[in-house]
Amino acid sequence: MCDIQERLADLDKTDPKKNEDLSNMQHNTLPPGRAVVPDNESFRAWTRASLRRLGLSPSSYGPELGLGKNTIGLFLNSSYRGVSLGIAALLADDLQKRAAAKGIDLDPLARGGEHG
Fold first, then answer.
1. CATH class entry, domain 38-115
2. 86-107 per-position pLDDT tens digit
């Protein structure tokens, strides 16, 4: 993954859309249809803390979402293992909805690489 500063150095004066996307990355704003997701370590820490605050165990929570009972635990306990963007989105959405329903504040998700 390229560093933002390196990408900004590659600004193409003939491509205003590319320049806008790079500028948005620099200022942590997103054009419509783009997503910024945290890196695996940040998302792992956020997921672990969120599960703890909600009193959920990875092995029982995974099947509630239609995942295998070990899927979340393997992600949380293996620093070399990631999850797909779809599973990350499912986890983030569901954990935030559960927290809101219970009146529990979760830490904000860290921002990381751009996808979309």
1. mainly alpha
2. 899 999 999 999 999 999 999 9
